[in-house]
Amino acid sequence: MTGARLSLVAVLVPDYAAGLAFYVGSLGFRLVDDIDQGRKRWVVVEPPGGGCRLLLARAEGAAQEAAQGNQTGGRVGFFLQTDDFGRDHAAMLAAGVTFEEPPRHEPYGRVAVWRDPFGNRWDLIGP
Fold first, then answer.
1. How does DSSP assign 63-124, residue by residue?
2. Which site from 23, 25, 44, 74 is most exposed, i.e. has the minimal number of CB atoms within 10 Å?
3. Does the residue 3 lie in any domain?
4. Does residue 29 belong to any structural domain of this protein?
5. What is the mean pLDDT of residues 35-61?
């Protein structure tokens, strides 16, 4: 698979407005695409530093609605890497992000687990 790369990861959200309000409004992600496709939209956001993008997928039906926040079976499934942990941790706290723990040091860097408003567990990781 020469030249292949991971470009998008889908995150279930209850609706597009809520997803955009959090990822773009609260976290400062950049809106890359918002394409109306009739009954759904192609909504892509990107972290300020680039990297893998998120496809905000509106949950449709009981199974998808039940999977919101549990797409990875309760494990941390998303990892937001920063070049300045203290700066971004403080900004996220100020934006109302819920951290499950205080920052800790691991061999791979400083880390703290947080949840988005939809229940998805994330790691904030920095040097």
1. HHHHHTT-TTTTS--EEEE-S-HHHHHHHHHHTT-EESS--EEETTEEEEEEE-TTS-EEEE
2. 74
3. no
4. yes
5. 96
